[in-house]
Each structure stands twice: as structure tokens, then as C-alpha cells.
Design goal:
Order of helices and strands: HEEEEEEEEEEEEEEEEEEEEE
Oligomer: single chain
Radius of gyration: 27 Å
Strand content: 35-45%
Helix content: under 10%
Distance between the termini: 100 Å
Largest sheet: 4 strands, antiparallel
Structural class: mainly beta
Shape: globular
Length: about 325
């Protein structure tokens, strides 16, 4: 009679041993990230209407590794946003009511910052049904106040029920909101050595928005720590039925620039490449064909591929309306 032997469990035993060792190595390895990011700074809140408030804050420093933000209303979480978002509209509020908002940053490890300093705001009284938009601000002016800041000013718009907010747009996207009684604001977090175009719209208590006021072009100065200005200059766009003619002066990057990336309405649409022997000297041109309907509004800008393979600063933005 053959002796009875225990079943072989080598595979299961090795798997269990491997998992045990892995857990031990994890426990003995690097400490988990438990350091919270810094609290968001520069938090502001502005009533946009009787039932909405616009909350803004400054972007976190890259070293903080922030992956998102949380907005709290009176200690209650009301919105979560990705790291690239630094403003939000809180809607569904009650007219003639006081509110307090705080913002917390969150990193990839799930650590949350302490709440920001609270900001308090009151919504105005609700008004009778209103469908009339304010007039556009008649004038807009701007000046750079450093490589990353621009100061904008505008003249007041008019409205039958009163202007409650002024919204600043760049490339067709709202980037800032100021109070209805304000006529100036400072934009921060911009890129050095970059040409921008800004417009301002007025908004009333029923969230009716005016047309854009006059566009103002402002170029931020270069930052010496980032080397020479890399933006294409003298960028122009002329339109005719079915085509848009672009022209610009190449930046001085140390060699001929043969590649540019074109953005339309803040989205990359094509890479313009000049082949060997066709790289323009100084002034460059490009014809863009389109089948978009008449009246379509585009904002256009481009930047150059630098010798190190990265993209340089953007040209000044051009705003066009396609003809019929």
C-alpha cells in the first residue's frame, strides 16, 4: 500500500509568499504622500445675479501637485473642479441672501488643503422678468503690469435694471468677473512675452449679457529668466469668401522656423509646415480655406516650434467674422 501524501501546494504557497513580501516591501518603502497642498489664495466671490455667485481663486503653484479644487458653501461641498479650473458659477441661490464660500485644493494622493479664508457675498433682490441686455461697455483699455499681470479698465455700460457684473473674455472664453460697480480689474497668471486680446461684457441681474465691448490688445513683457521672446509678431488675418489669409513675422529662435501651430477659438486646428527650401525669410504667409457659414466669428493665434522641440509663446490674437 502506497503511503498517502499531502497535496502539493507549491504554487499557492509561492503566491501567498509573494503577496506577503510585496506588502512588507510596500510598508518598508517610501512613505506615502501625506503632505497637504497649500490653501488656495486670492479667493473672491461676486454676485452675478439674484440667484448666482461667481467664485474665483488663484491657481496653485506647480510644486503643490494639485489635481483639483473643491468649493464649499457654508461648509457644504457644492462643486468639484479639475486643476485647470480656477472659477465657477454657483447657481440656484436665493435672492437677497448672504452666503460664505471657501475653496480647498486636492492632490493626486487625495490630500486636501485647509480651507481658504472665507469670502462673504450677498445676492441682490430679484427683479421683474427682464429680457433686455445691457449695452456694451463703450471703451476698454489695458496695460501690462509685469510678465504675468495685466490691468484692464472700461467705461460703464447701461441697463434698464442695472449692471451687476462685468465679465472679461479672452479668446471667447470668460476668464474673470468683476462687480457691477467696478471699472477696472487686474488679471493674473498670464504668460510672459505673450500678446493677448481682451473684451468686456456687461451683465444684469437676470443674467442678460451685453455684446462685447471694444477689444484691447495687450502684450506682457518677456521674463528674462525664460530667455528671448518666442512669439510670432505682426500677426494679421484678412478674410474673403471661402478663404482667410494669414501673415506674420517669424520669431528669432536662432534658426529658421519651419513649423507653426494654428489655434481657432482657442483650439488647435492645424500645424503649418514649410518644407525644405520653402521656409520663409522674415514674413510668412498661409491661406486657410473654410466652408463655415457667413457670420461665423473666429479668434486666431499661432505659435512656433522652437529649436528644442517645444512650442513658443503665442502671437497676438486676431478676431474675424467670415463673409458670405
Amino acid at each position: 500500500m502506497r503511503p498517502t501524501t499531502a497535496p502539493r501546494r507549491t504554487g499557492a504557497f509561492l503566491t501567498a509568499l509573494t503577496l506577503t513580501l510585496a506588502a512588507a516591501l510596500t510598508a518598508c518603502g517610501e512613505d506615502a504622500d501625506t503632505a497637504p497642498p497649500h490653501s488656495p489664495g486670492g479667493v473672491t466671490a461676486q454676485a452675478g445675479s439674484a440667484t448666482s455667485v461667481h467664485v474665483m481663486w488663484e491657481a496653485a503653484a506647480p510644486a503643490d501637485g494639485v489635481t483639483g479644487y473643491q468649493v464649499f458653501q457654508g461648509g457644504r461641498l457644492v462643486r468639484e473642479l479639475a486643476a485647470e479650473k480656477t472659477m465657477v458659477d454657483i447657481t440656484g441661490l436665493t435672492p437677497r441672501s448672504a452666503y460664505s464660500f471657501t475653496v480647498r485644493a486636492r492632490d493626486a494622493a487625495g490630500n486636501r488643503s485647509a480651507p481658504s479664508a472665507p469670502v462673504r457675498v450677498s445676492t441682490p433682490a430679484a427683479r421683474a422678468e427682464d429680457h433686455q441686455a445691457p449695452t456694451a461697455p463703450p471703451t476698454t483699455a489695458g496695460r501690462a503690469e509685469g510678465p504675468r499681470e495685466v490691468r484692464l479698465t472700461w467705461t460703464a455700460a447701461t441697463d434698464d435694471t442695472g449692471v451687476t457684473a462685468y465679465d472679461v473674455y479672452q479668446g471667447g472664453v470668460r476668464i474673470h468677473t468683476a462687480g457691477g460697480a467696478e471699472s477696472a480689474t487686474t488679471l493674473t497668471g498670464l504668460q510672459p512675452g505673450t500678446a493677448y486680446s481682451f473684451t468686456v461684457r456687461a451683465r444684469d441681474g437676470s443674467d442678460n449679457s451685453s455684446p462685447d465691448g471694444p477689444a484691447v490688445a495687450v502684450a506682457t513683457p518677456g521674463d528674462p529668466s525664460q530667455g528671448p521672446d518666442t512669439a510670432p509678431t505682426a500677426f494679421t488675418a484678412s478674410v474673403s469668401p471661402g478663404t482667410v489669409e494669414l501673415a506674420w513675422t517669424a520669431p528669432d529662435t536662432g534658426r529658421k522656423t519651419s513649423e507653426y501651430q494654428l489655434y481657432v477659438n482657442d483650439r488647435p486646428v492645424t500645424v503649418i509646415q514649410f518644407g525644405a527650401g520653402a521656409v520663409p525669410q522674415g514674413r510668412a504667409t498661409y491661406r486657410l480655406t473654410t466652408t463655415e457659414p457667413a457670420g461665423t466669428v473666429w479668434t486666431l493665434k499661432l505659435h512656433a516650434r522652437l529649436p528644442d522641440g517645444t512650442w513658443g509663446a503665442f502671437s497676438q490674437e486676431q478676431r474675424i467674422t467670415l463673409p458670405g
